[in-house]
Amino acid sequence: MRFILIGFAIVSLAISFKIDSSNVNCNVGGTVQKGWESLRDLFQQNLENKIDLGASLAVYHRGELVVNLWGGWFDKQKTKPYEKDTLQLVFSTSKGIVATAIALCVQRGLLNYTDMVIKYWPEYGQNGKENTTVADIMSHRAGLPALRNTNRSLHEYLDWYSVIHKLEKQEPYWVPGTQHGYHAYTYGWLAGELVRRVDIKQRTLGQFIRNEIAKQTQSEFYIGLPEQYEPRVSPIVIKAFEKPVSNVETNSLLQETLLPYSELDGFNDPKVHQAEIPAANGITNARSVARIYASLIGDLDTSKRLLNEMTIKKATKSNTPDNEPDQVLMNIPTIFGMGFMTYGSVFNPLGPGTFGHNGLGGSIGFASPSLNLSFAYVTNLLDLESSTVIDPRIKPIIDKINFIVNNQNKTC
C-alpha cells in the first residue's frame, strides 16, 4: 500500500536492568524486565540491519511496563541519537486514540454509537447524510472517505472549520451505513467534530485528548503540538521504493482519498504538527501509546483503567459485515469496530480480541485483552512497502512476545 494512508522507566534492579547506551552505532537505551530481554536484541537488530533509523518500542503486561526501549538516530543525517524524550508523528496510529476519545464520550453519556449524528451536529444532515449514525462515522461507513473538489494539498487540511463546512455540505459517495471504505483523513475530522460538539468544556479534540487521555494516563499524545515541543519531534524519513508502484492509479476513489506522494514531506512542517488533523498527525512515543492502550484493558500502576468493560466491548465489536469489501482499499480486507481496527486475517498479532490501529510506514499500537498486554512501536523511517502485511520490523518481536507470554502462562 505505497500511498499515504493517513495505516516510566523501571528502576528496580530486581526486575529489570538498565541497558548500556554506549553502543554508538545503535544508541539503544531503556529498560527491560527479566524474561523479556530477547525483545531488546530484536529491537537492536532492526537498527543494526538498517531496516530502521530511529524508533521506540514499549510493552505493558498485566499493567506493568515490561519493555521500554528507544534507539537509533533522530534524523537522516545522524546528527543526534533517538532518545527517551523523542517524539514521533505516527500517522494513522492516531486513529486509535481518537476512537478512545469517542469511547470516553460514550461512557460519560455524552454520545451514543447508535444515535444519528444530527442529534449532536445538526448541520451535518445535508445532501443524503441525514440518517448517518455515530457508528457509521466510527466504522468508516459514513460515505465520506474523501473531500471533493480540493487541490489535494496538505495545507488545505490545516483549517478545521473550512474542512468541517465542506463535510457538512458534501454528498456521500454511497448511502451511509450500507458499505464501508477507509476514511483516511476524514475519519478524524468527523469524529473530532462530534467530540467538540458534546464536550461540556467546548474543547477541541486535541485539547480533549491531552486533558482526558494523556494527562489521566501520564502519557504524551498531541494532536495539535504545542510549539515548544517541536525540537523533540524526529522528522520522518521515507524509505526508497524497491519495487514498482502498485496500481493505485486504477482506483479513482483511492486517488481522491489520499494525498499525493509529493505531500508526504509536508508532515515534517511545524505548521502541520501544530494543526489538528486527527486521523494522521498524532505525535507521541511508544511508551505513551502502549500505556494508553494498557489503560483501556486494565488498571495501571498509578491510575484506574480509562474505559470500563462494557464500553470497551462496544468500542471493539466489529461493525464490518463478513467479507464486505473496503470501497477505498479494494483488495485489502479491513475490519472496524468503533474506530479501532479489530485485527483478523490480514494481521492477527496476539490472538482473538486484539484491537488497535497501525499507521503509515510502520508505527502501530494495540491491546490484547486476553493476554492483558499492550504493544506499541513508533518509527521515523517510513517503509511504505510493508503497509499491507505485518511490518518486518515488528513481526519477529510479536512472535517473541507470544512465545514469552505462552511460556509464562505454562509456568504459572
TrEMBL record:
Which keywords does this Swiss-Prot/TrEMBL entry list?
Answer: Signal
Domain of life the protein comes from:
Eukaryota
Q: Does the keyword Signal apply?
A: yes
Q: Which residues form the signal peptide?
A: 1-16
Coiled coil regions in record: none
Ranges where the Beta-lactamase-related domain occurs:
44-387
Q: What is this protein called?
A: Beta-lactamase-related domain-containing protein
What is the originating organism of this protein?
Rotaria sordida
